[in-house]
C-alpha cells in the first residue's frame, strides 16, 4: 500500500509545475533535501541550542511557529506572514547577516512554507540539527573504549585451533552452521603466497611444501614469507590505495612527479620492517617535525603531497583551499575510518560529526607549506653536499656571474608576467616580504612561484638568438667545473609548517568567523584524552600534525585502532569484520564479530602494533585455512547469504597487479628487484612499479579495477566485463605473454605430456587431471605445432583457475 | 552490487544464483540499478527501498551529447549582444564585476563579435551566420543562455561538465545513466565516446570514467574511422574465426569444470558469460559501426561527402546508428583536445570549427526527426564553458565560466525557446541561471531519473549524480 501511495505522490508532483506542490506531497523529502541543510548551515548557529539571537530558535517546527521576540518566524502556508521569508529576502531583518542567500535557497524556504511547512518526524537515522553531541551519540559501538573480551569456549569444538577460531566457531554454532574442513595443502600454499607476497609459488616451492610433513612446516612457511621483501611490495599496495597514491598531477597537464616514488618505497620498507603503526602514522603525518632531519621520515611526508595539483590555476585561493580540504578528507578516511567530508558544509546528517569537527581536523594542516627543495639526506650528507657545492660555486664564480647577468632580464620579465596573471589580492601576497607574510599569504606566494617554473614553458622559452648562443657557450664553460660539482642529492616531495604567523582556520560563511583551533572528534572527547600541540622551536614548526599523529596512535583510541586492525583482516578474507572498512559510522555496517575485533585490536596493541604478528595470528587460524568448498554451501547461503560468518574461505579473483605479475611469472619474464623509479608498463617488472598517471593509467591494470589514485580506496571494485575479456583474448600484451610462455616450454624439452604438464604447473600451480591433459593434447595435437602451444598457454592464462585463488 | 541496500537486506555481495537479471548486471553492460532495485523491491516483499524506480515516466530514452571541447563563444553563435559591438575597444565597464580569468589578462578591451544575426523558424530564435545549418533546426532547439560552471580552466571545466564537479574522482554522467538505467543492448556498451580527431580530450579517458563506481559503468571509446572501432575487438592478426572459437571452447570447458567444482560461486559463471559476450560483440559491434549501408542522401545530410565535415559527420551518423541499437549515452567530442579554445584569432578558429560541426549536428537532428527518433533522443550541444566579451591577445577571447549557452533538442525538450539570459555583455548569467548541477539534473529528469533519488553508496555517503544539488529546469519541457 505504501508503495502505491508514494507512486501517486510522484505522479501528483509531476502534474503540478511548482516545487511548492512537490514540497507538499513528498512526505517531507523536500524538507530533508533542501530546507534542513539550509537551516543547519545558515541559521541554527545563532538560532539554536547554543545561541538564541532575538529569542528565536530555528531547529524545530514548534520553535519556528512560536517564533522569537518579533513574533512567529513561520506561518504554515502563509509566505507573506512568515518573518523568516522577509528576513532571508533582506526586506526587514537581513538574514543571514554575512550575505544574502542565493535566490534559489530563498525560493526553497518560500516553497516549503507555501506547501505547509512540513517538518517530518525524522525517518531513518537523520540526526537532529543541533551543533552538539548527545549522550546517545556517544553510545555508538565504534566509540566505546577497547576492552579485552573473554575468548569463547564452545563445547565439543574440535575445529578451532586458535582464539580467533573460537570466536568464529561460537557464532557459527549459534547459527547452526558447520565450518568447512581444512583446505588441501596445494590450495593453502598457493593461497598464502598470494596473500602475503601477492605472487604464486614456483612449482618447486609448491612441491617442497607439499612434501614437508613436519608439524611446523606451515608456521615456517609463514615466517619465511613475512621476511620476504616481496611482502612489503604486496601489502604496501593496499596502503597506497588508501592514500590515493599516484605519480602525476592530474588536471590538464597531468605532469609526472619524478620523486614521488620515494614515498612508495618508504611504504614498502615500512611494511617489510614491520614498523609499529603509530610510528608509521607519525612519519607520514609529521615526518618533517621529527628532528634530524630523518630522510626516511621526510620521504614519508609524501603522503601530504599526494593530492592533485593544477599547474596553471590562477584562482590560487580555491586551489589551496581545495587541496587542504582534500587532505583533511583523506586523513579522516584513512586513519579515522569515518567519512567526514559531509561535515565540511553542515553537521553530518547521520554521524555525530560536527561541522566544527571537520574544521578542527583541517586546522592541523592549516600551517602546511609544500617543500620541493629539501633533499632526502641526513644532516651530514647535506653539509657535505653544501661544502662541495660552495666550492664549485666559488671556483666557477666568474662564469656563474655572467650567466646570472645574462638570464636576469628573462627571469625578471617572466616574474612580472607570471605574477600579473593572478587576482590583485593574491599578487599582494607575493609582493610581501616572507617575514611579514601569514601562512596563507605564503601559500599563495608559493603557488605563484610554482607557475613561474612550470607554466608557459619556463622563463627561458623565448630567448633571443644571440643570448641563447652565449648561454650555450657559458654552459660549456661551466661544464669545465663539473669535476668539482657534487652529485645532486635525491629529490623529494615533502612539507613543512610555515614558521611565521599562522592564519586562522575559519568556517566559511559562518556568522561569527571565530578561529577554529586544531582539535579532535568531539564525540570522542571523553574517551580519548586530547593531545595539545607543542611547538617545536628548533624547527619553527607548530607541532600540530605531530599532535594529530599521537592522538591517532594512542592505545586507548577506540576508533583508529579498530580501523587499522579491521583493514588487515579485510585483506586476508576479502571482507572486514566491519565490512565497510573506511566507514565505522551509522551508514556503514556494524561488525559481524564485535568481540573478535576487540580481542584482536587489544592484542595487536599489546604486542607492539606489529602487523606481522597480526598476519601470523590470522594465518595460523583454522578459519583462514578453511577450504573454499563446503558440502552444504547452498543451505548455508540461505542462512548467511553475505557469507560474513566465514563458514568457508571466499574464492577471490586476483587483483589487477596480481594478474599482471602472475602472467609475467608464468612467461618467465618477471624481473625482480625492489624499489626505484617507476617504469613503463611494457617493462617486465611488478605492477607496483608501473608508472601511474592519473589521467591515463595503464590500460591492463585499469580494466582490472586498479585504484584510480583520486580518492582513498578501502576496497577495490571487482568487475567482470566483456571489455576485459576482449583485452584478455585479443590484446597484444596477453598474447605476447602466451608466446613467451610457449617459448619457455620449448626449453623444457621432453615428451608432449611432460611439456603440457609444465604448462599447467606454471599457470595453475598444479598438475593437470588426466582429463585436462587429454583435452589439452587433443587441442594442441601430437606434433605440438608452435601456434597451438601458444593458444593453449593463452587459454590457461585466460582461465578462471588462473585468475582466481581458492 | 555491494550497495548498502544489498548488505542491509542481507543480500549476498555477489550475484544471487538463478537471478537472470542480476546475472546480466554482473556480466554485461549492465541492467540498470533502477530496474534491479525495482526487482529487488519485489523480491524483498515490500521492504522499503531508498530508490524505487523508475522514478517517473521518461521523456528521453537516450542522450547524444555533442561536446564542443575548449569552449565555444556563445557571443558569436547564439547569444547576440549589440552592446558588445557598441563598446568594443573599451575596457569592461566598472559596473561589471571583474572576473578571475584563466589567462589573467588585466584590463583587456572588449572584443566585437562581427556576426550577421538572423531570426529563424517560426519561433524566431537568433543564430549567427557561423551555424547556418543548425539555424534551420531552431524550432526544435531550446537555447539555454544562462549556464554557469565553477572550473575556470579546461581540466576543471571538462571534468565538471562530465562529472558535475571540477575536481577529478566522481563518476561521469554517462556512468550514472548506465548505472541507473542500464543498457538497451546487451551486446554493445551502454555508454560510448567518440572523438573527431586523433588527439585526446583534456583529462583523457577519466572524462568517461566511472569514478568510485565499478568500471562496468565506464564509457567505452569507439573510433569509427578505425578498422578496430573498439580496443581489442578484432582477433589477433592471423587468427581465423574457427581458431578463435576453438580456443574459446577449450577455455570455457576448463572454466565450466572449474565452476562445477565450486558450486554457489556465481561470479565464476559471470566470467564465463562475459567471454561469450565478448565473442558476440566481435560479431555484432562491427555491424553497428559499418556505414556502407547508409544511402548517399543520408551521408550527404551529415556532410560525409565534404572534407571539412567528414570527421564529425561520421561520428554523428555513428551516434544515430548506436542510438537505434539501444546505446544509452553517446558523447561526441568536437575539436577534441581543446580545439575550440580560441585565446587568439577567434575568427579563424571558430569559422573552421563551426564549419566542421554545424552541418553534422543539423544532419543528426534532422535524421533523428525523420526516423521518428528525435522525440526519445535528447541531443545536447555545448562546451565546458563559453568565452569572455573581453579580448585576449587582441583578437581572441578568454574562458568564461560565469555565463554561456548550451542547446538541447529532442527527448521531450520544447524547441523554439530560449531559457535564461546573460547580462548585456554576455559575461555573467543573470536570469534563470543553470549551473552544471541543474544541467545534469535536467538531463537526468528528461531520462526519468530524479537526481536526488538515484544514489550509490560510497564510503558512508549516499552519493548522488548531482552531489545533492541541482534542479530539473522544467522550462525545458515547456512547463
List descriptors.
heterodimer; A: 806 residues; mainly alpha; 4 domains; two-stranded antiparallel sheet; 34 helices; B: 479 residues; alpha/beta; Alkaline Phosphatase, subunit A; nine-stranded mixed sheet; two-stranded antiparallel ribbon; 33% helix; 16% strand; disordered N terminus
How is this fold's topology laid out?
The complex is a heterodimer of chains A (806) and B (479).
Chain A lengths: L1 H14 L3 H7 L3 H15 L17 H6 L16 H6 L14 H12 L48 H13 L9 H13 L5 H9 L5 H11 L1 H14 L18 H12 L4 H10 L8 H6 L15 H21 L18 H9 L4 E4 L7 H17 L1 H23 L4 H8 L7 H16 L10 H15 L14 E4 L46 H9 L5 H16 L20 H13 L4 H9 L13 H7 L12 E2 L2 H11 L32 H5 L18 H9 L1 H16 L4 H13 L5 H11 L5 H13 L1 H4 E2 L1
Antiparallel strand pairs in A: 1-2, 3-4
Chain B lengths: L3 H5 L11 H8 L5 H11 L18 E7 L13 H6 L29 E4 L4 E4 L3 H4 L5 E8 L5 H10 L9 H9 L9 E5 L24 E2 L19 H20 L5 H23 L7 H6 L5 H18 L4 E6 L11 H25 L6 E6 L3 E7 L3 E5 L3 E6 L7 E3 L1 E2 L6 E3 L2 E2 H11 L9 E3 L2 E3 L16
Parallel strand pairs in B: 1-7, 1-8, 4-12, 4-15, 5-6, 5-7
Antiparallel strand pairs in B: 2-3, 4-11, 8-11, 9-10, 13-14, 16-17
Brief summary of the model shown:
The complex is a heterodimer of chains A (806) and B (479). By secondary structure, chain A is an all-alpha fold.
Helix-strand pattern of chain B, N to C? HHHEHEEHEHHEEHHHHEHEEEEEEEEHEE
| Assembly annotation | heterodimer
Shape of chain B: globular
Biggest sheet architecture of chain A: 2 strands, antiparallel
Q: Determine the mean pLDDT of chain A.
A: 90
Count of helical stretches of chain A? 34
Coarse shape of chain A: globular
Strand content of chain A: under 5%
Strand content of chain B: 15-25%
Q: Report strand order across the widest sheet of chain A.
A: 1-2
Question: How many strands appear in the DSSP assignment of chain B?
Answer: 17
- Could you give the count of β-strands of chain A? 4
**Greatest interface and its participating residue counts:** A-B, 100 and 96 residues
Helix and strand content put the structural class of chain A at: mainly alpha
| Rg from alpha-carbon coordinates of chain B | 23 Å
Secondary-structure class of chain B: alpha/beta
Count of DSSP-assigned helices of chain B: 13
Amino acid at each position: 500500500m505504501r508503495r502505491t501511495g508514494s507512486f501517486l505522490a510522484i505522479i501528483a508532483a509531476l502534474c503540478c509545475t511548482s516545487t511548492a506542490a512537490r514540497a507538499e506531497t513528498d512526505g517531507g523529502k523536500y524538507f530533508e533535501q533542501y530546507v534542513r541543510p539550509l537551516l543547519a548551515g545558515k541559521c541554527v548557529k545563532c538560532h539554536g541550542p547554543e545561541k538564541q539571537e532575538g529569542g528565536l530558535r530555528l531547529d524545530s517546527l514548534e520553535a519556528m511557529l512560536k517564533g522569537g521576540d518579533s513574533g512567529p518566524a513561520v506561518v504554515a502556508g502563509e509566505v507573506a506572514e512568515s518573518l523568516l521569508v522577509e528576513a532571508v529576502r533582506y526586506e526587514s531583518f537581513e538574514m543571514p547577516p554575512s550575505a544574502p542567500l542565493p535566490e534559489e535557497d530563498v525560493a526553497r524556504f518560500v516553497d516549503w512554507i507555501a506547501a505547509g511547512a512540513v517538518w517530518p518526524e525524522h525517518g531513518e537515522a537523520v540526526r537532529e540539527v543541533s551543533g552538539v553531541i548527545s549522550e546517545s551519540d556517544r553510545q555508538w559501538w565504534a566509540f566505546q573504549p577497547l576492552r579485552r573480551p573473554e575468548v569463547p569456549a564452545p563445547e565439543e569444538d574440535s575445529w578451532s585451533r586458535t582464539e580467533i577460531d573460537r570466536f568464529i566457531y561460537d557464532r557459527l554454532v549459534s547459527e547452526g552452521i558447520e565450518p568447512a574442513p581444512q583446505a588441501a595443502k596445494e590450495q593453502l600454499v598457493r593461497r598464502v603466497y598470494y596473500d602475503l607476497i601477492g605472487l604464486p609459488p614456483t612449482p618447486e616451492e609448491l612441491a617442497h611444501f607439499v612434501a614437508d610433513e613436519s608439524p611446523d612446516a606451515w608456521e615456517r612457511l609463514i615466517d619465511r614469507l613475512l621476511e620476504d621483501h616481496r611482502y612489503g611490495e604486496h601489502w604496501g599496495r593496499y596502503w597506497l590505495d588508501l592514500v590515493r597514491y599516484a605519480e602525476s598531477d592530474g588536471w590538464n597537464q597531468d605532469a609526472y612527479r619524478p620523486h614521488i616514488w620515494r614515498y612508495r618505497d618508504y611504504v614498502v620498507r615500512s611494511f617489510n620492517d614491520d614498523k609499529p603503526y603509530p610510528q608509521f602514522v607519525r612519519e607520514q603525518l609529521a615526518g618533517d617535525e621529527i628532528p634530524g632531519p630523518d630522510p626516511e621520515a621526510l620521504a614519508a611526508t609524501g603522503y601530504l603531497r599526494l593530492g592533485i595539483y593544477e599547474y596553471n590555476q590562477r584562482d590560487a585561493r580555491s586551489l589551496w583551499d581545495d587541496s587542504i580540504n582534500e587532505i583533511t578528507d583523506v586523513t579522516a578516511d584513512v586513519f579515522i575510518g569515518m567519512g567526514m567530508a559531509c561535515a565540511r558544509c553542515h553537521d553530518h546528517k547521520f554521524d555525530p560529526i560536527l561541522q566544527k569537527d571537520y574544521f578542527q581536523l583541517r586546522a592541523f594542516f592549516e600551517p602546511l607549506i609544500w617543500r620541493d627543495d629539501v633533499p632526502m639526506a641526513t644532516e651530514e650528507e647535506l653539509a657535505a653536499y653544501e661544502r662541495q657545492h660552495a666550492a664549485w660555486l666559488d671556483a666557477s664564480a666568474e662564469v656563474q656571474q655572467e650567466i646570472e647577468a645574462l638570464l636576469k632580464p628573462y627571469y625578471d620579465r617572466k616574474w612580472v608576467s607570471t605574477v600579473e596573471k593572478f587576482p590583485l589580492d593574491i599578487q599582494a601576497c607575493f609582493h610581501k616580504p616572507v617575514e611579514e607574510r601569514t601562512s596563507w599569504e605564503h601559500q599563495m606566494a608559493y603557488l605563484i612561484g610554482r607557475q613561474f617554473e612550470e607554466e608557459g614553458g619556463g622563463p627561458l622559452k623565448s630567448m633571443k638568438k644571440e643570448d641563447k648562443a652565449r648561454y650555450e657557450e657559458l654552459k660549456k664553460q661551466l661544464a669545465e667545473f663539473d669535476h668539482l660539482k657534487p652529485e645532486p642529492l635525491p629529490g623529494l616531495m615533502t612539507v613543512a609548517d610555515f614558521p611565521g604567523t599562522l592564519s586562522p582556520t575559519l568556517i566559511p560563511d559562518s556568522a561569527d568567523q571565530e578561529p577554529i583551533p586544531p582539535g579532535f572528534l568531539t564525540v570522542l572527547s571523553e574517551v580519548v584524552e586530547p593531545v595539545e600541540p607543542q611547538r617545536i622551536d628548533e624547527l619553527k614548526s607548530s607541532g600540530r600534525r605531530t599532535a594529530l599523529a599521537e592522538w591517532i596512535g594512542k592505545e586507548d583510541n577506540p576508533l583508529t585502532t579498530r580501523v587499522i586492525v579491521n583493514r588487515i583482516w579485510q585483506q586476508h578474507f576479502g571482507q572486514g569484520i566491519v565490512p565497510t572498512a573506511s566507514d565505522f559510522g551509522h551508514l556503514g555496517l556494524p561488525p559481524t564479530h564485535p568481540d573478535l575485533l576487540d580481542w584482536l585490536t587489544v592484542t595487536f596493541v599489546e604486542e607492539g602494533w606489529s602487523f606481522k604478528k597480526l598476519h601470523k595470528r590470522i594465518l595460523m587460524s583454522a578459519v583462514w585455512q578453511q577450504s573454499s568448498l563446503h558440502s552444504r554451501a547452498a543451505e548455508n547461503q540461505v542462512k548467511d547469504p553475505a557469507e560474513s560468518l566465514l563458514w568457508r574461505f571466499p574464492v577471490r579473483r586476483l587483483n589487477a597487479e596480481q594478474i599482471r605479475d602472475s602472467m609475467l611469472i608464468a612467461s618467465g619474464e618477471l624481473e625482480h628487484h625492489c624499489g626505484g623509479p617507476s617504469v613503463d608498463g611494457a617493462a617486465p617488472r611488478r605492477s607496483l612499479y608501473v608508472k601511474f598517471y592519473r589521467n591515463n593509467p595503464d590500460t591492463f591494470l585499469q580494466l582490472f579495477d586498479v585504484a584510480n589514485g583520486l580518492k582513498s580506496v578501502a576496497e577495490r571494485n571487482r568487475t567482470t566485463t566483456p571489455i576485459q575479456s576482449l583485452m584478455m583474448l585479443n590484446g597484444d600484451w596477453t598474447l605476447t605473454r602466451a608466446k613467451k610462455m610457449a617459448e619457455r616450454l620449448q626449453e623444457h624439452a621432453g615428451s608432449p605430456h611432460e611439456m603440457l604438464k609444465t604448462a599447467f604447473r606454471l599457470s595453475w600451480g598444479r598438475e593437470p587431471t588426466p582429463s585436462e591433459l587429454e583435452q589439452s593434447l587433443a587441442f594442441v595435437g601430437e606434433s605440438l605445432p608452435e601456434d597451438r602451444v601458444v593458444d593453449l598457454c593463452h587459454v590457461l592464462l585466460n582461465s578462471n583457475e588462473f585468475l582466481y585463488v581458492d | 552490487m555491494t550497495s548498502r541496500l544489498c548488505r542491509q537486506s542481507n543480500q549476498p555481495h555477489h550475484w544471487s544464483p538463478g537471478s537472470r537479471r542480476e546475472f546480466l548486471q554482473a556480466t554485461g553492460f549492465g541492467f540498470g540499478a533502477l530496474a534491479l532495485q525495482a526487482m529487488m523491491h519485489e523480491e524483498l516483499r515490500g521492504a522499503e527501498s531508498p530508490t524505487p524506480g523508475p522514478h517517473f515516466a521518461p521523456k528521453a530514452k537516450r542522450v547524444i551529447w555533442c561536446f564542443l571541447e575548449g569552449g565555444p563563444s556563445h557571443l558569436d553563435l547564439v547569444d547576440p549582444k549589440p552592446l558588445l559591438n557598441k563598446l568594443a575597444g573599451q575596457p569592461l565597464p566598472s559596473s561589471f564585476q571583474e572576473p578571475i580569468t584563466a589567462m589573467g589578462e588585466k584590463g583587456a578591451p572588449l572584443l566585437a563579435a562581427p556576426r550577421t544575426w538572423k531570426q529563424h523558424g517560426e519561433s524566431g530564435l537568433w543564430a549567427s551566420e557561423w551555424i547556418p545549418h543548425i539555424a534551420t533546426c531552431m524550432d526544435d532547439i531550446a537555447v539555454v543562455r544562462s549556464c554557469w560552471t565553477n572550473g575556470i580552466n579546461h581540466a576543471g571545466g571538462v571534468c565538471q561538465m562530465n562529472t558535475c564537479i571540477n575536481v577529478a574522482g566522481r563518476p561521469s554522467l554517462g556512468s550514472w545513466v548506465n548505472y541507473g538505467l542500464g543498457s538497451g543492448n546487451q551486446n554493445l556498451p551502454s555508454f560510448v565516446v567518440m572523438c573527431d580527431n586523433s588527439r585526446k580530450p583534456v583529462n583523457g579517458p577519466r572524462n568517461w570514467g566511472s569514478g568510485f563506481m565499478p568500471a562496468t559503468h565506464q564509457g567505452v571509446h569507439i573510433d569509427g574511422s578505425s578498422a578496430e572501432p573498439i580496443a581489442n575487438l578484432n582477433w589477433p592478426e592471423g587468427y581465423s574465426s574457427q581458431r578463435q572459437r576453438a580456443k574459446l571452447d577449450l577455455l570455457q570447458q576448463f572454466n565450466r569444470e572449474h565452476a562445477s567444482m565450486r558450486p554457489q560461486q556465481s561470479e565464476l559463471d559471470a566470467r564465463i558469460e562475459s567471454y561469450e559476450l565478448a565473442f558476440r560483440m566481435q560479431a555484432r559491434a562491427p555491424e553497428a559501426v559499418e556505414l556502407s549501408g547508409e544511402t548517399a542522401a543520408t551521408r550527404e545530410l551529415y556532410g560525409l561527402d565534404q572534407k571539412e565535415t567528414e570527421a564529425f559527420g561520421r561520428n554523428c551518423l555513428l551516434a544515430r546508428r548506436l542510438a537505434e541499437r539501444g546505446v544509452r549515452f553517446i558523447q561526441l567530442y568536437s575539436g577534441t583536445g581543446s580545439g575550440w579554445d580560441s585565446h587568439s584569432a577567434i575568427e579563424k578558429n571558430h569559422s573552421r570549427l563551426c564549419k566542421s560541426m554545424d552541418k553534422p549536428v543539423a544532419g543528426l537532428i534532422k535524421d533523428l526527426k525523420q526516423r521518428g527518433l528525435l522525440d526519445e533522443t535528447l541531443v545536447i550541444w555545448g562546451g565546458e564553458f563559453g568565452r569572455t566579451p573581453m579580448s585576449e591577445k587582441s583578437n581572441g577571447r578568454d574562458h568564461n565560466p560565469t555565463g554561456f549557452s548550451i542547446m538541447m533538442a529532442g527527448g521531450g525538450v520544447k524547441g523554439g525557446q530560449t531559457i535564461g539570459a546573460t547580462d548585456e555583455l554576455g559575461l555573467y548569467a543573470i536570469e534563470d541561471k543553470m549551473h552544471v548541477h541543474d544541467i545534469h539534473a535536467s538531463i537526468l529528469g528528461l531520462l526519468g531519473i530524479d537526481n536526488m533519488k538515484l544514489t550509490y553508496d560510497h564510503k558512508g555517503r549516499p552519493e548522488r549524480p548531482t552531489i545533492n544539488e541541482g534542479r530539473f529546469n522544467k522550462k525545458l519541457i515547456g512547463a
